[in-house]
Inverse folding.
């Protein structure tokens, strides 16, 4: 079968701080080229998803792995999950620290009896696997955190409630994700994030839950946006279950995003189905997604700012 691939680098209100459209496009297309070549060579959807997530985690332009945002205490805690649609097995790590690629832990846990680990358990697994300690902090993320801390201090001194306004921060909706369809018709999805930044310690992202990352033999979805909105919509499984129950992928996306928009959610998603159909949707202004349909690469970077669902064909 003709492999298909779609990836994302988050959703938000603008491309500010990411170098503009062309810079983001180059980053996404570089990943597409390498991962699609693997799919053509016969690599499984799950392996392709892991490699795609690794490459996106290693790009400091995106809020996952290197370049993750800092939480309220100045620490980086990352989350990631992987779902193999053929076996319908989900695995993930929550709030792991000092590792280059959280998706690697999610991959290992696919064959474990305990398939989702949080902070201490994930850190212990990192040591067991003898993965080298790694600091994902970048100068830009440190500057953002220091500025946010200073702004919150000023608001507090002025008697103003010091809350992080997500609408002003694209980092707050930063995630990376990959959905792949391989030569055997198998589907897999992976999602990884550094969180929303300045959050309360212990907050859990949708990226480590089926709500934000889900795949079966019928379809696969990776979400991005405000994690709490994605969790409230239970977006990824909602779309996949609708496809399983007989809706086309585009119908499932349209209905799910219509509902999300009516509920004033701020989110986006990428998806593939068992026919090789590629789709995406967003209620946010920008969705940083790109795809390879077997013939060419394209992206969603310059779509209109209105809520939209799109399809790349089958």
């Amino acid at each position: 079968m003709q492999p298909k691939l779609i990836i994302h680098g988050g959703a938000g209100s603008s491309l500010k701080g990411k170098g503009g459209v062309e810079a983001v496009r180059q980053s996404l297309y570089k990943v597409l080229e390498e991962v699609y070549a693997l799919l053509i060579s016969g690599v499984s959807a799950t392996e392709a998803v892991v490699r795609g997530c690794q490459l996106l985690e290693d790009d400091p332009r995106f809020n996952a792995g290197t370049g993750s945002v800092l939480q309220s205490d100045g620490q980086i805690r990352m989350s990631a999950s992987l779902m193999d649609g053929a076996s319908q097995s989900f695995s993930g790590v929550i709030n792991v620290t000092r590792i280059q690629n959280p998706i690697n832990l999610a991959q290992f846990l696919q064959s474990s009896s305990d398939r989702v680990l949080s902070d201490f358990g994930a850190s212990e697994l990192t040591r067991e696997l003898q993965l080298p300690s790694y600091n994902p902090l970048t100068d830009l993320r440190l500057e953002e955190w220091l500025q946010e801390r200073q702004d919150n201090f000023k608001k507090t001194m002025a008697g103003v409630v010091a809350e992080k306004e997500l609408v002003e921060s694209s980092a707050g909706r930063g995630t990376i994700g990959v959905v792949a369809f391989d030569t055997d018709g198998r589907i897999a999805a992976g999602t990884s994030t550094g969180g929303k930044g300045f959050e309360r310690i212990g907050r859990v992202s949708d990226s480590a839950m089926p709500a934000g990352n889900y795949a079966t033999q019928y379809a696969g979805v990776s979400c991005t946006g405000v994690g709490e909105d994605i969790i409230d919509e239970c977006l990824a499984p909602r779309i996949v279950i609708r496809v399983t129950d007989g809706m086309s992928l585009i119908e499932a996306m349209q209905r799910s995003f219509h509902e999300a928009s009516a509920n004033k959610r701020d989110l986006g998603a990428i998806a593939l189905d068992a026919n090789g159909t590629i789709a995406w949707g967003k209620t946010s202004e920008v969705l940083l997604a790109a795809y390879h349909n077997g013939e060419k690469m394209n992206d969603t970077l310059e779509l209109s700012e209105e809520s939209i669902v799109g399809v790349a064909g089958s």
